[in-house]
Specification:
Layout: H1 2-10, H2 36-44, E1 71-78, E2 81-86, E3 91-94, E4 128-130, H3 141-150, E5 155-158, H4 161-167, E6 174-176, E7 181-183, E8 189-193, E9 213-217, E10 224-226, H5 235-243, E11 246-252, H6 259-262, H7 269-279, E12 281-287, H8 301-309, E13 315-316, E14 323-327
Parallel strand pairs: 3-4, 4-5, 5-6, 10-11, 11-12, 12-13
Antiparallel strand pairs: 1-2, 1-14, 2-3, 7-8, 8-9, 9-10
């Protein structure tokens, strides 16, 4: 606990800090991710429990066109992709990935266990896109290009990702530092939040672009949080304290085995429950599970562990395609 307290004492909402080589550091000032030595060690381990593929989820009603005042609707499309509808009708998409694989190539890499719960062409109009960081399961160029061609919705992301998007024909992304703010369509405010993770697209750009999450404060009041990817840490307590809590928080629960390696970048379900308390979130909604096999645990293990440990906490695991309406 003393170590955690020291981390809380040094964490700030921003700006982010770089090392001498130009790589961003974690919120506590430490290096991001794991060493290459540990990466190679992890790669020598077996792949863990096999996942089923071709899962067909039951169809769900479409996302609600309207939500009550002071509420938001969260529709789970898969992995970290949620369609968020605010009470004025503004529709936000988080970390959109509709591709078959999360990979730099279309013929290799982690493949979907199930299709997106809503096809890209069936989406309602998207007003804004939040991209937490540059990993392939969160920043998917084909999906973003399709969204851009259809609506031209503005993209909000961390420092360094705008150049990548512009290179693929999507100029004008709003890049944010930790603690940086932007006004979304509809007059809603977004703040980019520090997370304990890292960002990379290849071998030579590790942590050269910034990773994070978002706090969204609707114009009508209330707050929601979208964490993107993060490991456990005191930064979450700082965020909860600085914002005074959240009505709802999208929190990752999967991709944590082997724990000795993944604890630097992801959370276990039990740590996700602690994260809800640190954020002071009345309702938490699970994400980052049962879509792409990124690590060693079974496809249903994150949900089982969360249900076993959550007690009286309002931490919900949405069905694919289901909408959760929450008061903010």
């Amino acid at each position: 606990m003393a170590g955690a307290r020291r981390e809380i004492d040094v964490v700030r909402l921003g700006p982010a800090v770089r090392d001498a080589k130009g790589r961003f550091l974690n919120p506590d000032g430490g290096p991001a991710g794991q060493s290459l030595r540990n990466v190679f060690r992890m790669m020598r381990e077996r792949g863990g429990v096999a996942w089923p593929t071709g899962i067909v989820d039951p169809p769900q009603p479409p996302p609600p066109e309207r939500v009550p005042a002071g509420h938001a609707a969260f529709t789970f499309i898969g992995h970290s992709t949620f369609l968020i509808r605010l009470d004025d009708g503004t529709t936000i998409l988080t970390d959109p990935i509709f591709s078959e694989r999360c990979s730099p190539v279309s013929w290799a890499g982690p493949r979907r266990a199930r299709p997106p719960a809503i096809a890209l062409e069936a989406l309602p109009r998207i007003d804004a896109v939040l991209v937490s960081h540059g990993h392939y399961d969160h920043l998917d160029i084909p999906s973003l290009k399709a969204l851009h061609a259809r609506w031209g919705a503005p993209v909000f992301t961390g420092l360094g990702h705008g150049t990548l998007l512009a290179r693929h024909g999507m100029p004008g992304a709003t890049e944010l530092d930790w603690g940086g703010q932007a006004v979304l369509p509809g007059g809603h405010r977004a703040t980019y939040l520090p997370m304990r993770h890292f960002s990379a697209r290849g071998l030579h750009d590790r942590s050269k672009a910034l990773w994070g999450g978002f706090a969204v404060e609707p114009a009508s009041g209330g707050r929601l949080a979208f964490l993107g990817d993060t490991a456990a840490g005191g930064h979450l307590e700082v965020i909860g304290r600085e914002f005074g809590g959240f009505g709802a928080a999208l929190i990752p629960i999967g991709a944590y085995e082997p724990f000795w390696f993944m604890q630097a970048v992801h959370m276990t379900p039990e740590q996700a429950l602690e994260a809800q308390l640190q954020l002071r979130a009345k309702t938490a909604i699970a994400m980052h599970f049962a879509t792409f096999k990124l690590t060693q645990e079974a496809i249903d293990e994150p949900e089982r562990r969360l249900h076993a440990a959550r007690g009286e906490q309002d931490f919900r695991v949405p069905g694919f395609g289901k909408s959760v309406v929450v008061e903010l």
